[in-house]
Amino acid sequence: MFWKKKKEENVVVDIYAPVTGNAVALTEVPDEAFAAGHMGRGVAIEPTEGKLIAPFDGTVAHIIKSKHAIMLEHPAGLQFLFHIGVNTVSLKGEGFISHVATGDTVKAGQVLIEFDIEKIKAAGYPVITPIIVTNADDVTSDLELITGPVEAGSTVILKAVIKS
């Protein structure tokens, strides 16, 4: 009897925008570490609304003490860094309100961090928000990034094909 090997299926994971605004290539971020891809692959959003929401059900892997950045883990193994603004660590948490803690389980659409766009801009910092898949090379075989106007929770900003 001959056995046919099962064909391995690619799993595609859609990641929705965590903020409302305009999605652009990472090269648009005025910070070399992000723009050159040193932090990982991804996309950036110029926000028009000061709320960062969970773009998927997952776990808070880490929240930065100054509340300007958070790392989330997707059940498929993808790890994301959401970094609100550039050099905003200098604000020491001013203008940021975190609604979650490290280790929390979050649901898609849940508010993670609220941030004051005008306060950030008044302090002289860009508000552009990089969304980085920190382990894309290890976990994905393909990563499609989408740019243009996005709405938090309803516009797909990236499609990841998970390695099987």
From TrEMBL:
A Pfam family annotated for this UniProt entry = PTS_EIIA_1
GO terms for MF: kinase activity
How is this protein annotated for GO cellular component? Answer: cytoplasm
Signal sequence span is none
Location within or outside the cell: Cytoplasm
- Record's InterPro entries? Dup_hybrid_motif, PTS_EIIA_1_perm, PTS_EIIA_component
Q: Domain PTS EIIA type-1 spans what residues?
A: 31-135
Tell me which UniProt keywords the record has, alphabetically: Kinase, Phosphotransferase system, Sugar transport, Transferase, Transport
Q: Does the keyword Transport apply?
A: yes
What GO terms in the biological process aspect are recorded for it?
A: phosphoenolpyruvate-dependent sugar phosphotransferase system
Name the record gives this protein: PTS glucose transporter subunit IIA
Q: What is the lineage of its organism?
A: Bacteria, Bacillati, Bacillota, Bacilli, Bacillales
